[in-house]
Amino acid sequence: MTYPKIELHVHLEGTVRPETLLEIARRNGYALPVDSVEDVRALYEYRDFAHFIEVFMLTSGALEREDDFRQVVVEYAEEAARHGAVYLEAIFSLGLWRGLDSDVVFSGVCDGAEEARERHGIEIRLTPDIARVYTLEEALHVVGYAIKYRERGVVGVGLGGPEAEHPPEPYAPAFELARSEGLASVPHAGEHAGPGSIRGALDALGARRIRHGIRAIDDPELVQELAEKRVVLDVCPISNVRTRAVPSLSRHPLPGLVAAGVVCSLSTDDPAMFGTDLSTEYAAARELGLEPQNFYDAGLEGALCDEPTRTRLRELGEAFDWDTLRAGGVEVP
Description:
Blueprint: E1 5-11, H1 18-28, H2 37-43, H3 49-60, H4 66-82, E2 85-92, H5 102-120, E3 123-131, H6 136-148, E4 156-160, H7 172-180, E5 184-185, E6 188-189, H8 195-205, E7 209-212, H9 220-229, E8 232-235, H10 237-242, H11 254-259, E9 264-266, H12 271-274, H13 278-287, H14 292-302, H15 307-319, H16 322-326
Parallel strand pairs: 1-2, 2-3, 3-4, 4-5, 6-7, 7-8, 8-9
Helix pairs in contact: 4-5, 6-7, 14-15
């Protein structure tokens, strides 16, 4: 049985499977330090979070053309739909550090989202990321383009990258502009940095949701605040294990957060780079004693979609037989 899923936290650059990465790199004449699928998989073994960021920048550099970005969106939509996804919010970078034309990136991603809906019946909304190494001017550039393309499915702006070295507060003006134009604030926080990272995202950036947010568990008052305000955390268990944000799945704080009343959605983060998929993430959550319906409901609560789409998603969730799943149904993607 494959059950419906909502994914709110997936980086498009991190969805590119080894075969596609090699294909795109060769097409663009981009030099990778590896030339086989096996070598790419070996490249995806990380020492720590800093090493992951290094590999992420290396591999995402292969994406250069509109068609590259379109292809990546459509291929991941097909994969996610096989695992039951009915709605995605996809994250992507503008590649300012390598001089990409922002219209090329946005046009390709938006074209891909439209094609994915037509071919695979999956709704996709878009949330470009501000990299924490950007200047405020560069951050405002990202927001400006997000505003330009909001009629094509851009619904929010994120903040990603090394949390401890780059706190959120300096980017407050960019997020204020985004919010004033109807775009939600959906930053990463509280993954490898502590609760202060989350508080900064809430207070300085007006965060609607927090991507990761698992370090909230270290501050009971913050946990209570998140629960009372219904701030959705987009949690990615396998990613957290792979980047050593947590020592093991069995010690993941997700069950404690859920038990405390925090609304937690479930996502893959960078599925190709972490060797995971939506079915694997949900299996991990069930291993921790958690029920899939809770994550569907949390995804629906956190989704930034329009009301007609939200109504369709709600009806889809209400129509599914979750009781049978709880009684022992095993997912077969």
